[in-house]
Design a protein that fits this description.
The protein is 0% helix and 40% strand. By secondary structure, the chain is mainly beta. The strands form 2 sheets. The chain has a 4-stranded antiparallel β-sheet, with no helix packed on it. A 3-stranded antiparallel β-sheet has the order 1-2-5, with no helix packed on it. 10% of the residues are buried.
């Protein structure tokens, strides 16, 4: 996972099932019983997603699961987290007299 000011770039290892349809990403709180909501569906063979418009300095937690063409879903992956940080310096001031 890569943090890039107000967004996180997510990636995961590809599933090798022959009938893989897509991956379903969830975002939410940390821990087994934390509430998570569906974030995105990424069609196979894709293994990346950019989560944008996030608050810098806030930690976000993610899980991914695979789904086949019959609609069967894997169990969720281990949880991963990321914290976007603002690393862009402000523009130079001007007009000093």
């Amino acid at each position: 996972m890569v943090a890039a000011g107000q967004r996180l770039n997510l990636s995961w290892t590809a599933n090798t099932e022959a009938d893989l349809k897509d991956y379903r990403l969830r975002r939410g709180g940390s821990g087994l019983w934390a509430s998570k909501t569906d974030l995105a569906t990424v069609g196979a063979p894709g293994t990346t997603h950019q989560d944008g418009a996030l608050a810098n300095g806030t930690t976000y937690y993610y899980q991914v699961r695979a789904r086949d063409v019959s609609g069967n879903e894997s169990v969720e992956s281990a949880e991963a987290s990321g914290t976007p940080q603002d690393t862009t310096a402000p523009a130079n001031p001007g007009g000093l007299g």
